[in-house]
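Appendix B, Record 12. Input sequence as logged:
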Amino acid sequence: MKILLATGNKGKIKEMNALFSDMDIEFIGTDTLKETPEVVEDGKTYHDNALKKAMTFYKIALIPTLAEDSGLEVDALHGAPGVYSARIAGEGAPDAEKVRKLLEMMKDVPDERRTARFVSVLCLVLDGKPYFFEGQVRGHITRRPSGRSGFGFDPVFVPEGYKRTFASLGQKTKNRISHRARAIEKLKEFLKERLTRS
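Logged structural output:
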């Protein structure tokens, strides 16, 4: 089965193909399409954004299409930045700027109240119908960044049960325990079942 991943990021496509290497599934990117429209992620939820992205590209590619939206929800900020995680410091701001902005917003939050969770929502459009898979990981926000791996808020997020940030734990551990990994696990089960039936 060929699945279009709604991204032009070759690293993400490679990663997905590695994760599904034990199955008869091949992920291809939007660079294989004749047209790649800019999808404005203006939904109020991760589900809205993932669905909009997946449906837009499905209508062009006409093959199963997978899209994701994810974000960081901080309890002390009433769930912010949430769906606005990528734009917390303005459109196109670098990761370091987003982290700086988040830490600034949380400067008066005491350690015991710095709890947060990462959420990932995958939307797979199959035969024109959407299917959703959600994963989340709880943890807390540190006072300063640490670690060099990962991206986004990884340098300030320590997952529950660990003492180091996602950026310090390294890609291998993160890929095993992250919100995205949990959502992908559910997607994998779903696709295994579909492939067995077909």
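The first strand starts at residue 2 and ends at 5.
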